[in-house]
């Protein structure tokens, strides 16, 4: 009997040991099953395969941090851009979702700007890094260190939804990704079914007072403007053209939209003071910018804000209700705004 008891104990210990091999801990010390491989294709068309769902994630761009919280996977984040703490509206909102953000305790493996520190990233022991596909030097360096990298492009609405679904697979949040993207896709369909008969022309100005820099046809901003029911005043099929005041008068937009710029950046320009949109006070600032980040599924809210400015029948009250509802769905929590 004694021998039999010892055999049972030994067998049980072996089973427990095997189970422990198939489990790991996330950034908060919670055990997660790791016995199922996951894979997804990123914006480069590259298939990223992990031996189990990602549990320690470093995110190198602000918009992608936002994506992870939308997927209700914020506890997996172990590294973020320094700008998360520096951008007031972003920091304030994400602090409601994660005390680590509020306490500024999540590591920032960056030099400042968009430069990342490979040594710091390695020290965080991530099993996945998220970044944009334009960050090629960092991507190559990180992958050469044996760390999987999933890239985003955020080229348009379809790519944004597709990339959120795919990263959801790697984070073990496939069902959650379907919930968010399903809601956004349905709202997009409704907006496209109710377009204006005579669309207004919108000129979009880049951030930090770069009024003479805009977004051309085929860009992400062009997509959002079109979705709103308006028309991009810039007819040039160039991602980010720089123009002259003479060109602005030629295009003669009905509205000028600013991103992270002040209204005075336009109204103080002598060369634009005779432009009808300026004379008619049709210059609007997307502020605070966080609720309308077009690099995420919030391109939907960017487009709805434009619709309100273009179409008086789409009231401020309706816009506020739509934004509140969208936040409840995409962040999975009520009372955030």
From TrEMBL:
GO biological process: cellular response to iron ion
Keywords: Signal
Signal peptide: 1-17
Residues in Fe/B12 periplasmic-binding domain copies: 56-314
Protein's UniProt name: Iron ABC transporter substrate-binding protein
Species of provenance: Chryseobacterium contaminans
Upper lineage: Bacteria, Pseudomonadati, Bacteroidota, Flavobacteriia, Flavobacteriales
């Amino acid at each position: 009997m004694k021998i039999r008891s010892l055999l049972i104990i030994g067998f049980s210990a072996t089973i427990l040991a095997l189970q422990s091999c198939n489990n790991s801990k996330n950034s908060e010390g919670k055990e997660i099953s790791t016995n199922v491989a996951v894979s997804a294709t990123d914006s480069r068309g590259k298939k990223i395969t992990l031996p189990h769902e990602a549990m320690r994630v470093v995110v190198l761009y602000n918009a992608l941090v936002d994506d992870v919280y939308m997927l209700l996977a914020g506890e997996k984040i172990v590294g973020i851009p320094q700008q998360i703490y520096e951008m007031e509206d972003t920091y304030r909102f994400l602090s409601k979702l994660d005390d680590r953000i509020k306490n500024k305790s999540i590591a920032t493996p960056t030099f400042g700007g968009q430069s990342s520190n490979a040594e710091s990233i390695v020290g965080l022991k991530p099993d996945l890094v998220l970044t944009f596909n334009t960050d090629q030097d960092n991507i190559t360096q990180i992958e050469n260190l044996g760390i999987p990298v999933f890239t985003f492009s955020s080229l348009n609405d379809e790519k944004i939804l597709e990339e959120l679904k795919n990263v959801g697979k790697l984070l073990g949040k496939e069902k959650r990704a379907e919930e968010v993207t399903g809601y956004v896709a349905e709202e997009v369909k409704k907006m496209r079914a109710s377009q204006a008969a005579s669309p207004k022309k919108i000129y979009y100005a880049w951030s930090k007072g770069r009024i003479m820099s805009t977004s051309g046809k085929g860009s992400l901003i062009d997509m959002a403007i079109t979705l709103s029911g308006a028309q991009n005043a810039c007819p040039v099929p160039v991602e980010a053209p720089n123009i002259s005041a003479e060109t602005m008068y030629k295009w003669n937009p009905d509205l000028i939209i600013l991103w992270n710029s002040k209204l005075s950046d336009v109204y103080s320009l002598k060369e634009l003071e005779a432009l009808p949109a300026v004379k008619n006070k049709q210059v609007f600032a997307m502020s605070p910018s966080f609720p309308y980040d077009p690099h995420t599924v919030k391109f939907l809210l960017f487009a709805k804000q434009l619709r309100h400015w273009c179409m008086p029948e789409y009231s401020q009250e309706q816009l506020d209700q739509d934004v509140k509802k969208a936040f409840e769905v995409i962040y999975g929590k009520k009372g955030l705004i």
